[in-house]
Amino acid sequence: MTEMTDAPRPLGLGDSAPNFTARSTKGQLALSDYRGRWLVFFSHPADFTPVCTSEFIAFAKAKAGFEALGCALLGLSVDSLYAHLAWVRAIEAHFGIAIDFPIVEDPSMAVGRAYGMIDAAAQDSAAVRSTYIIDPDGIVRAITVYPHTVGRSVDEILRTVAALQQTADGTRLTPEGWRPGDAFLAPPSEKVMEGDDLGWFCRTMDAP
Fold first, then answer.
1. Where do the domains of the chain lie?
2. For residue 106, pLDDT beyond 70
3. How far is CA 131 from CA 43, 82, 117, 152, in A?
């Protein structure tokens, strides 16, 4: 049975991620267990579906990359724990890929609704494909939402985690398409921001 603390409104950037305790493929866990490290918490519409299976295989293949950034992975859907376990076994049997990060069950949709993953009036989660990147203090730093017909880019999620970590102190920015090792942009001054000169764009900072 899932236990939750309620979120007063849909989550936004800078909000505290609501804590919960729930059963998962790795035993009972709480979101607070992840304090002190980054977390990618993502929902999927249903087990055994083609797009979701492709995403989970991609997450599993990229797990070492997330771990190198001190970032854990946590999946969720409304399917039961037994369905999750059967799906994980089927993925390993058919594709030789082990899904060794937890998948949380949410049959009551309590977690999904608290996070805004599921509309309050929805009867199921068929249209839900949400991703929350949560920092070590439990603060939501990035949110993406995709329709059930479109798979996420795991590579983009990994890139975003790296960018969030590098810009967390506010002293630098990442330009479009930034990847680890690339140069950063320096934040523009208020004086520059008030004008119409794009000279600030040339103020780059070397990668550490």
1. 3-152, 169-208
2. yes
3. 7, 23, 9, 9
